[in-house]
Specification:
The complex is a heterodimer of chains A (184) and B (261).
Chain A: H1 2-42, H2 45-61, H3 72-88, H4 97-104, H5 111-130, H6 133-141, H7 149-156, H8 160-180
Helix pairs in contact in A: 1-2, 1-3, 2-3, 3-7, 4-5, 6-8, 7-8
Chain B: H1 2-17, H2 25-44, H3 54-91, E1 103-106, E2 120-123, H4 129-150, H5 156-168, H6 181-190, H7 195-201, H8 203-231, H9 252-260
Antiparallel strand pairs in B: 1-2
Helix pairs in contact in B: 4-5
Chain lengths: 184, 261
């Protein structure tokens, strides 16, 4: 009996070490990508980091079914995307736009030009929020360079052509609204 | 203007694209995951359950619980068995079938095989109703006396047989009681064509009758007073009242009416 229990404990320790190694590898490989996905929606570093941590907590809870996941990257991005949208309902991303816009302004610019540049950045972010939901989602997800059109379509649950059309319309509508608003 | 808007839009998208994760994010995430994993593992084996060998507890659980369940079921059956007669006893009195022939115990008068038991059991043929009841009561009383003299306790069966025998005894009508004075007077009044009544209705005859009764009264108490005076000479002699003699003559009519009766 003792030998059987020892054998089972050894197997469980091997499985635990394997899952731990896999989890650490997943964190190392995908944490930056997931952070950008979350940050594109939330525009806050702290909130995006919390979302990434929540993603790996979900992975830890469902580690028994990790073997059935076909594309780990898309699966993780979808989890991060959904968690970000869920968190967006609680934290209003508009409150972080000012700080993010100021971070985009070059430090070398004079103060008056830096203020004008920051105002333009806030106008762009505001018009992005006014876009239709589907177009905004495609535009935000297209920011992530690692994701191609097929992966974006899989994350959003749409076809590739629809994603391309939505992305084109989103850019066109945003440009037109910026021109109409005098964002020059 | 279009170029400026395009530049602004591309600049914002580039800023979102080129954002860098904060330093130490991976380490923080991994440490948080380790802490969470340890917490879940401790929660799974918390308490004293890990000290209990399940391969030993699982069989013992059935061994221990099975007799307890059987004992509880047996106790409930016994309780029900005690409760049902109790309810029946409080509901109504038990009814015993009346025997066709009564067995009556008589005290033994001499030595015999059944004398040691305290009395001989003899079967008596049923008597005629009027006589049989009296005999049954008498024999029952005798049996009760004999049992008490022997010191044995009376049982419920003996009481039942006594009650049955008393129930089967013939009933005796009460003897006629003598009439009271009022009843006799009532009969006398109700009786029609009574000559005495007619005499009472006649004032002359009634006065004569009253005088006769009073004379008789005086004669009786006058004699009694004389005797008492003679018995006690020391006492002062009281004046003897003259006895009133009936002044009225006895009418001859009374004689004639009595003769008519």
């Amino acid at each position: 009996m003792a030998s059987v229990e020892g054998c089972s404990l050894a197997l469980s320790s091997i499985e635990g070490s394997r899952s731990e190694v896999d989890l650490a590898a997943l964190v190392e490989a995908y944490s930056s990508l997931l952070f950008r996905v979350a940050h594109s929606v939330l525009r806050s570093g702290a909130e995006a980091e919390d979302v990434v941590q929540d993603v790996f907590v979900r992975v830890l809870e469902h580690r028994q079914s990790l073997s059935s996941v076909r594309d780990m990257r898309v699966w993780l991005v979808r989890i991060a995307w959904n968690l970000s949208l869920d968190r967006r309902r609680r934290v209003r991303p508009e409150q972080f736009d000012e700080g993010f816009a100021e971070s985009l302004v070059a430090k070398s610019l004079p103060a008056d030009k830096a203020l004008d540049e920051a105002r333009r950045m806030r106008a762009v972010l505001r018009e992005m929020e006014r876009l239709p939901k589907a177009e905004r989602h495609v535009l935000l997800l297209s920011v992530v360079e690692e994701l191609g059109t097929a992966e974006m379509a899989e994350v959003l649950g749409r076809s590739e052509s629809a994603v391309r059309a939505l992305l084109f319309r989103a850019r066109t509508r945003l440009r037109e609204r910026l021109e109409e608003g005098g964002c020059a | 203007m279009r170029k400026n808007s395009e530049d602004a839009m591309e600049k914002v998208l580039a800023g979102l694209r080129e954002v860098e994760a904060p330093d130490g994010m991976e380490r923080r995430i991994l440490s948080a995951l380790d802490a969470l994993e340890d917490e879940t593992s401790v929660g799974a084996r918390s308490g004293w359950n890990w000290l209990r060998p399940m391969w030993l507890v699982a069989p013992l659980r059935s061994v221990v619980t099975r007799p307890v369940v059987c004992g509880m079921a047996l106790a409930s059956l016994v309780a029900i068995g005690f409760l049902i007669p109790a309810f029946r006893g409080t509901g109504r009195a038990p009814v015993k079938p009346t025997p066709a022939r009564s067995k009556i115990e008589l005290p033994s008068t001499g030595p015999g095989p059944s004398a040691a038991s305290g009395g001989a059991v003899t079967e008596i043929a049923p008597l005629p109703p009027a006589r049989a009841g009296v005999e049954a009561v008498r024999t029952t009383d005798l049996r009760v006396v004999a049992r008490r003299s022997d010191g044995t306790s009376e049982s419920a069966a003996d009481d039942d047989s006594l009650a049955v025998s008393e129930m089967r005894a013939a009933s005796h009508p009460a003897p006629p009681m003598p009439l009271t004075e009022q009843e006799r007077l009532l009969l006398r009044i109700v009786h029609k064509d009574d000559p005495v009544e007619v005499a009472v209705l006649n004032p002359a005859w009634r006065a004569a009758r009253d005088a006769e009764d009073q004379a008789e009264f005086q004669r009786f108490f006058g004699v009694a007073a004389d005797r008492s005076a003679m018995d006690s000479p020391k006492q002062p002699a009281t004046e003897q009242q003259p006895i009133e003699q009936p002044t009225t003559e006895q009418p001859k009519m009374e004689q004639s009416t009595t003769e008519q009766q």
